[in-house]
Amino acid sequence: MAKLTYKDSGVDLATYEESMSRLPRLMRRTHCPRVLPWANGFAGLFKLDFAGGLFARNYKEPVLVSCTDGVGTKLKVAQLLGRHDTVGIDLVAMCVNDAICCGAEPLFFLDYVAMAADDPGLLEQIVSGISQGCLDCDAALVGGETAIMPDLYQPGDYDLAGFCVGIVEQSRMLTGANSSPGDAVIGIASSGIHSNGYSLVRKIVLDHAGLKVNDKVDFSDQSVGDVLLTPTRLYTRPVRDVLNHYKVKSVVHGIAHITGGGLHENLARVLPDNVDAEIFRDSWPIPPVFAWLQKLGDVEDDEMFRVFNMGIGLTLVVSDYYAESIQQQLTSQGFESWRIGRIVEGSGEGRWA
């Protein structure tokens, strides 16, 4: 009787070593001088250089900020299309876009990739997207973990989780508590669906409408797969530009990442309990992908706005006096924005005006 090996159970250590050999270059391209080398690779090292030097941030009361998230069932679309180089951007964005809501600067990122079997090419595609997302938000990819679990995942399946750490000066931390009646709500454009609501998206498009990922959509020359895999937009650089330009607590009062729950629910998370955010329903153009989904699935308006971002990926609650100037800054960074609401007396809710 032959002796059993790890490979017999579905884990090939030689293939695993090949997979790992493809990742260091994708990590190194995201590194800054604050990333310290550690040859054994058991952990990632990042120097908090407060005291001085070229790259010091001179924090007085630094607060570390941590966020974790995944990509969800958008991964099923990537698997159907056989394209895996963008979901890593989604993974970074879903974490980092949360971290910046308190005014934090992203520092570093780690990933967790769970797979049914070792596949060096697939892993390289996934991590290339993670690496690109880290570059786009100026975070260092300092490490991660790849788990091979053939009995837990079906062939071709995988899952992703991400973890980021940022930093913010305590005196400049945004909590939303300073929001007051008269403040403006600025909405910054999303790139599309981002990474929320994909269980409903897939049910509408693939099950109910019976479309295939290579079919063309009726509102552009893109395929269904291309539209559904459009990566989540990263907002780190424009937010950092705005926060560095102003005295934060007197100008920018709150930031909300618009994910599951939509505008009303996510805005309410950054409001004190004595004000409401009134949203002007027709104050921004809703991207055609949402009208397409709504028509295909015969989805009610309220459900669309509760599940999806509807074209607004991030909101800023700001002093009305500075709203126009902030919008000009966002435009200069290539981010379209609209004044989509106002803060009024209330009880900490988001609602239509």
TrEMBL record:
- Pfam families, sorted: AIRS, AIRS_C
Report whether Transmembrane shows up as a keyword of the record: no
Presence of keyword Ligase: yes
List the CDD domains hit by this protein, alphabetically: PurM
Q: Which UniProt keywords apply?
A: ATP-binding, Cytoplasm, Ligase, Nucleotide-binding, Purine biosynthesis
Q: Which positions fall inside the PurM-like C-terminal domain? A: 181-349
- Entry's family note: Belongs to the AIR synthase family.
Q: What is this protein called?
A: Phosphoribosylformylglycinamidine cyclo-ligase
